Structures are given as C-alpha cells and as structure tokens.
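hey so u asked for the seq, here:
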Amino acid sequence: MDFEISPMRQSDLDGVMKIEKASFPTPWSRNAFLSEIYENSRACYLVARQNSKVIGYVGIWIILDEGHITNLAVHPDFRRRGVGEKLMRAIMDYARSKGAKRITLEVRVSNLGAQKLYEKLGFVSVGIRPGYYHDNGEDAMIMWKNEQPPRDRPVRDHHGRR
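ran it, structure tokens below
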C-alpha cells in the first residue's frame, strides 16, 4: 500500500477528527490537536496520507530522554495494512533523533490488535493502570520499549563480518 508520512498540519484536522471519532469512545477535540501542534513544544504529531487523504496519525511527547506515545489511530478502511506500524516506526525514529532512550504508551487491555503491534515493535508490558479510561473504567496496560542508539555503520564481529 502506497502512502506518505509527514508532520500533522492544521489542514489535516478534518481527516484526523473523522478517524478520531471512528476510533475512540471519547475522542480528542480539534482544539486539543491544535494545542498539541502549535503550543506543546514537547509534542510531535505525524499523519499518513494517501492521495492527500489522511488515513492515520500518531503523536508523541518527548520529556527529557523518554518518549510517551499519546495516540495512534488508523482509519477503519485502512487498518491491518501496515499503516499503524509505519507510523509507529516513524515516530520512534523521531524520538531517537531527539535523544529518547525509552518510549512508553498505554493501551486498553481489551485492544489485543494494538498490543500485538506494539509487541512486534519491541514493547513489553510492565504493568496495569486500573480504571485508566474514564469512558468505561477499563484498565490500561503500560508498555515500554528501550531504544537502541542509531548506528552509523554496520556492526561487525571480531572477524570483520557483518
């Protein structure tokens, strides 16, 4: 599937809001996204676009040497096609470029598909936040990933092999 990933802009918010409302029982407001884009110096938000249509987005806060994924959503018509994974990989690359050594997120305990994606990307469950989601009191699984520093050249063994 062909799509591009780039920074979220105000002009993306109509598409973001459609995905937000289709994905979450308590969606963020347009103003919350505007605040994140323009007022939160710790935040970065990316969108996936196909033919200029927003099909997914992800956000992160960088605080000292840690990243906190704030949200990830993909339009229902484009799920299970690698959009979420590519968005996550792009935001993790951004976090590493800003010095993040660890990344964390919360995910609903019932969201097994998202948990599987995060595990594939190297996140591990480290605990539960009881009653974290206000809409229904569902628990959140806390997941962390330790980031490896980027390498400038391939690692070679003591025989000079890659």
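Residues 153-162 have pLDDT under 50 and may be disordered. The domain at 4-101 is CATH 3.40.630.30 (Aminopeptidase).
lmk if thats what u needed
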